[in-house]
Amino acid sequence: QRDFNQKIDYVFKVVLIGDSAVGKSQLLARFTRNEFNIDSKATIGVEFQTKTLVIDHKTVKAQIWDTAGQERYRAVTSAYYRGAVGAMLVYDTTKRQSFDHVARWLEELRGHADKNIVVMLVGNKSDLGSLRAVPIEDAKEFAQRETLFFMETSALEATNVESAFVTVLTEIYRIIS
Ligand code: GDP
Ligand code: MG
C-alpha cells in the first residue's frame, strides 16, 4: 500500500507483544499485506510495517512494531515501547503457557508505555479449535479485570485480524481527538 501523495492526519504507533511463536508476525503480515507466510523467519529484521486507513474521515497511518525475536522476558527494550499509543498483547489459544505469561507482558508494558495506551488482548490461532488450551472465558475475565479489549483471531484464516487492529486504532483516535 502506498501513501504517495496522501495527506496523513495521524501516525499511531502500535506494538506487538507476547511470547514467541504465538503468531505476532503473521498477524502483522495479515493486517498490513493480507498475507500469511508459512516461513515466518522472512519478516525478521523488519522493525515495523505500516498500513494507512481512514477513520472518521481522517487518514491514519498505523505504524505497527514487531519484536523480531526478542521475546525473552525483559529483552524487549524501552525504545520498542517509546511513543506507543496502542498494543496488541498476543497469546496462542492452543498454548496455556503463552496465556499464563500475559500478566507478565502487561506488567512490562505498563512499566514502559504511556498510561493511556490502548491494549487489546489477542488469542490467536482460533482456527485450531480441537487443540484449544485456553478457555475463552478465562481470557475474557482477565481482559475485563485489567480493562483490556479482547478478541480471538486467526491470522491463518484471516478471522478478526482486521477487526482487532481497527478496534484499537479507532479507540486511540477517539481518545486523542
Ligand atoms: P511470532 O513468533 O509471535 O511472531 O509467531 P509467528 O507469526 O512467527 O508464528 C509462529 C507459528 O505459528 C508459525 O508457524 C505460523 O505459521 C503459526 N501461526 C501463526 N498464526 C497462526 C494462526 O492463526 N493459525 C495457525 N494455525 N497457525 C498460526
Ligand atoms: Mg515474530
Compact overview of the structure:
The chain has 177 residues and is an alpha/beta fold.
Q: Given the structure, what is the number of helices?
A: 6
Unreliably modeled segments: none
Order of the strands making up the biggest sheet:
2-3-1-4-5-6
How much of the sequence lies in strands comes to 15-25%
**How would you describe the shape?**
globular
How confident is the prediction overall: mean pLDDT?
91
Largest sheet: 6 strands, mixed
Decide which structural class fits the backbone. Answer: alpha/beta
Family: Belongs to the small GTPase superfamily. Rab family.
GO molecular function: GTP binding; GTPase activity
Keywords: GTP-binding, Lipoprotein, Membrane, Nucleotide-binding, Prenylation
Membrane topology: Lipid-anchor
What does this structure look like?
The model has no long low-confidence stretch (mean pLDDT 91). The protein starts with 9 loop residues before the first strand and ends with a helix. Strand 5 (118-124), helix 5 and strand 6 form a beta-alpha-beta unit. The chain has 177 residues and is of the alpha/beta class. Strands 2-3-1-4-5-6 form a six-stranded mixed sheet, sandwiched between helices. It has six helices and six strands, in the order E-H-E-E-H-E-H-H-E-H-E-H. The structure holds guanosine-5'-diphosphate and magnesium ion (MG). Residues 24-25, 40, 66 line the site of magnesium ion.
Provide the descriptors you would attach to this structure in a database record.
177 residues; alpha/beta; six-stranded mixed sheet; 6 helices; 24% strand; binds guanosine-5'-diphosphate; binds magnesium ion; membrane; prenylation; nucleotide-binding; GTP-binding
